[in-house]
Write a structure and sequence with these properties.
- The chain is an alpha/beta fold.
- The chain has two domains: 69 residues, OB fold (Dihydrolipoamide Acetyltransferase, E2P) (Beta Barrel), CATH 2.40.50; 252 residues, Rossmann fold.
- Helix content is 28%, strand content 23%.
- The strands form four sheets. It has an eight-stranded parallel sheet with strand order 11-10-9-12-8-13-16-17.
- Strand 6 and strand 7 form a beta hairpin.
- Helix 4 crosses helix 10.
- It is globular.
- The relative contact order is 0.13.
- InterPro entries: DUF3866.
Amino acid sequence: MIRIRQGRVTGVKARRGDITEITVQIPGEPEGKAYNYDLLTGPVKTGDTVVLNTTAVSKNLGTGGAHFVMANVTIPPREAREPGHIMKLRYSPCQVKVLAAEEPDSPDAEIIKNTTSLDGVPVVVGTLHSMLAPAAAGAKAVTGGRARVVYVMTDGAALPLPLSNLVRELREKGLVDATITCGHAFGGDWECINIYTALLTAKAVARADVIIVAMGPGIVGTGSPLGFTGVEQGEIINAVNILGGQPVAIPRISFADPRERHRGLSHHTVTALGKIALTPCTVVLPRLRDPEQNTLILEQLSHAWPGDKHRQALEDGHPALAELKRREIKVTSMGRTPKDDPAFFLSAGAAGIYAAKLAVGTASNKGNQ
């Protein structure tokens, strides 16, 4: 059951694109924070009466301690006059109409219809939203900023792209050139129905040199072998191969995560690439300064999947972290910075660098190493 409460807007803290951060007062409860998605529920201002979904906060879940506005009962009803008839969040009280890039009313429908291949475009596939920044920085760093980077956000975690402060900053500072939201995710420069049309849109319409695919903020996980949304990495790799792209996988590597299943090479990577991916990809390993860490990762890889299933490549991810620093972009994952957990961020940066080298024809593909 959704926990629904009515409250009053006591202040507007920030307006960022299509999302507004507000403070709300619910009778009998402390003043709290809430998010309003302007494209869903219209504009909001101080004094408005709003209907709030308070479920996650009441359960102490990881939403940043925020409620979400379901409706603004103060503003008058409005008709949805924008073009498009594709619904996302279908058959739910929050279903939202979008103009999908591939539907007939779209100005891009014809080019997408006539595009059947990625023609070798490299696609970096990650499992966490925090992998996006170092991967994009790596692609830009190795090409002097010339590579056009397009981010495809899946629906494996947060569905509204405007929730991501990271994406907004990467756009503003030139590390991501365009965004696409697919499945039930929404709010990108282009909306797509599934990962296949999203990839083709990224190539043919957004003119990507490098495509980065990852879910939005907040992976869902349970600790069980298959119970996490990051399994989509394997499915996306299959899609890239079906469409004739070059899949580049970011391995999830950490030596700061206290959970044994994520130490060194995460079980997420072993499962997604070992069980779910039925087609090959290039797994890019970062150059780590600790020889014991390198040895552990190689040992884990030797048991993760058959030796001839995926290719391996080795890249130095440090230029990606230097690019983030140069552009004054601070990144974290699970509250940890690159200083706290360098292997994690170097892995994503190395994958972005390798993909950009593929795009310009300078990558060294040596198969298994």
